[in-house]
Design a protein that fits this description.
There is one protein chain. The chain is an all-alpha fold and 56 residues long. It has two helices and no strands. The radius of gyration is 22 Å and the shape is rod-shaped. The chain starts with a helix and ends in a 24-residue tail after the last helix. 0% of the residues are buried.
Length: 56
């Protein structure tokens, strides 16, 4: 196997690193977004449920 064909340049690694950073940021944004699309920190209200004793 040719040693030069296995080498990866620093610029290629930087590009891959930036792509991975973007992907992680996107996934974390999706995970942290609430179901109603509003990032208020409040849990959504389920109608006709007791005020206590249920969890989401």
């Amino acid at each position: 196997m040719d040693q030069h064909s296995d080498e990866v340049t620093v610029e290629e690694l930087r590009g891959e690193l930036e792509d991975l950073r973007t992907l992680v940021h996107t996934l974390l944004t999706i995970i942290m977004e609430e179901a109603d699309g509003v990032q208020s920190g409040n849990t959504p209200h389920i109608p006709n449920q007791p005020k206590r004793g249920y969890s989401m």
